[in-house]
Design brief:
With 152 residues, the protein is an all-alpha fold. It is built from 5 helices and no strands.
Length: 152
């Protein structure tokens, strides 16, 4: 059964990549936010927060990453640290210099607007959180992308 599900998912990725990836991202973000809200020991589920997060990852972050990674592959190709270390480093640096700053910036601007805090709330979140979140992101995603770009 798991093999059949895996084959069907792979086929959906081939035929409808953005819909499949967006749906997957939305489901993962929904589960992640439900878990986070449980860890926060909330007495009531903040469903609007979950919708905002799942919507952002489904409709903004996932399509961006889909097209961004395709662009990185066209520009740099499938390089590894073993077959072309300078080009591999350039791929990781380019990815991390452009992708996360844009996605985190979009998140900081969009979430407060969707929460009813307007564009001024988004600008405030951008000023307050963008650089701190970006540095934390790099601490995780630079090593992760080195592994991912080596394997794919």
């Amino acid at each position: 059964m798991l093999g059949s599900l895996s084959r069907r998912y792979a086929a959906a990725l081939d035929t409808h990549p953005l819909l499949t990836k967006g749906s997957t991202a939305g489901a993962i973000m929904t589960a992640a936010d439900l878990t986070q809200q449980r860890l926060e020991q909330r007495t009531e589920w903040d469903w609007w927060r979950t919708v905002r997060l799942a919507g952002f990852y489904s409709c903004v972050q996932t399509p961006f990453v889909h097209h961004w990674f395709a662009r990185l592959e066209r520009v740099f190709g499938p390089v590894t640290p073993l077959n072309n270390a300078p080009k591999f480093a350039a791929k990781v640096i380019t990815d991390q210099a452009i992708g996360p700053p844009l996605v985190i910036g979009a998140f900081c601007l969009v979430q407060p607007v969707l929460n009813g805090d307007g564009l001024s709330g988004g600008v405030e979140m951008l000023r307050r959180d963008w650089s701190r979140v970006l540095v934390a992101c790099w601490q995780v995603w630079i090593p992760v992308q080195c592994v991912v770009f080596s394997a794919v």
